[in-house]
Amino acid sequence: MGIPGAVDECYVREGVYRRLLAVARSLPEGLSLLVLDGWRPWRVQQYLFETLQATIQTNHPELDEQALLVRTREFVAQPSTEPTAPSPHLTGGAVDVTLCDVDGLPLDMGTLFDEAVPASHADALEGDPGQDDAWRRARDNRRLLYHAMHAEGFTNLPSEWWHFDLGDQLWAHYGEYASARYGPAELDTIESRWRRQL
Ligand SMILES: C[C@@H](N)C(=O)N[C@H](C)C(=O)O
Ligand SMILES: [Zn+2]
Questions:
Q1: Domain 14-197 fold
Q2: Pocket of ligand 1, candidates 53, 81, 96: which has the most ligand atoms within 8 Å of its Cβ, to mutate?
Q3: Where's the active site on this chain (predicted)?
């Protein structure tokens, strides 16, 4: 996507990977899980945060510093490698996922992945019965994704239907666990192994 420092491969913690496999196996025939993002380097998190913040600031110059921060953090976590409060995707415990059909085409979720609008809130399609069939299908697709992920222990970020956590700080917060399992992670490349060994 042209983001500086982005990696082509999608990495997650092994425990997360195993649970994602279980989610995929649990889905109704003909549906699959499409993993859109997993572990992120700090540089990518910073780029996403700064880009969204600058865009909101341009479009809403009336927002003060605090309001701008709140609006930005709704859709991108603050970049942090702080061991007690790392950005979720830096831990390898956060994933962005959706459902797709047999051809790999994403199902309609009502909004696009990373669409930074209130309609992307996970429950935004709930509670309005006066809508059309397309709206109902998108609502049901969100429900299916949410319950399949929840059954395998993932928690959902309420502001994004696609973002789920396992073992990181958001997971501990929304799942009411005593503490997170994962801190910030780095890729174990051949270079980093040599640095440790030699
Ligand atoms: C940028 C978006 N896909 C995302 O992952 N947002 C959450 C809040 C994050 O940055 O952790
Ligand atoms: Zn995410």
A1: Muramoyl-pentapeptide Carboxypeptidase; domain 2 (3.30.1380)
A2: 96
A3: 160
